[in-house]
Input
Amino acid sequence: MLNLVNLRKTGIGWNFESEANLEDFVWSNLQQWLGLTPLKQQYSVKGLFCDILAVTEQKQLVVLELKNTEDRYIVQQLTRYYHALLEEKPFQDQVNYDQPIKLVAIAPSFHQDNITDIKYHTLPFQFLQFSLIQKDEKLYFQSQDLNSLEFMPLIEVTPSVSDNTANIPAPPKALINLLNKGNSETKELLLTVRQKILRFDNRIKENSDSGVIRYRVKGKPCAEIRFVKWCNQRGIFLWLPIPNSKEISQKRIGRMYIQMNRQSTPYIMHTPPGKKTSKNSWFMDRYMSLIGKNNDLNSLESLVDIALGNWLERLKS
Output
């Protein structure tokens, strides 16, 4: 099977362009990779959306949840799916519900909290960690079962050579006018972020109103670029998790102004719509620690990735 996949090349390797691309890849290779028969993608059950449902040869139901970045709450998410599926019991002609539902988490890395969660959990979880590796001038999808430390069979991947930037419209006049009033470095940075957002999912729409350029769909915002009066700068706001010193809930998403300093390390300010000043603010490493992310991810691009991932989750809910 030719696995033509939309990938993004970074300074340290290859990544899937989006979580949707990862999901499509796994769906197409379930039999070859895990010996599973696919049932349904994006299955809706009691207001939740399961990425992939599949069955084993023995008709055991398997729930696969995929993440394109590390996610601190994947165990809780799969637990909710387990409960909803056990109540509804779909696909009864293809599933033997006398067997326990198997829960599979697939991600490029796992947070230490994930490991702690399953250590004391009674449900059967499987963690599969993946990466894209170069070998003999070919690219492969490599995965390892973190329970058994066994490596799964390699799957050859062919990066898509199509240039999906061709489908991105020219920046609106309002955005160009806004960026032309700032320095060239900021202009280039924000145009790069704009391209990343619009390439992520073609459902994201770009709208401009009164000098504010918004990126959203179905009333669920992801980002906005505007002139920020209280700091006299052109900048970007992202919808990101709101940290709390005691706990963090992925459901608490707020508008964050991302202020860049001379070292290009972001400073994050929680600025709800309509507010002229920030409610709280954090240096990048502190913010990443509070939301359970890797402190090494200290760039604006990392924050955009988190915002896009959260936007996709909110769109599913």
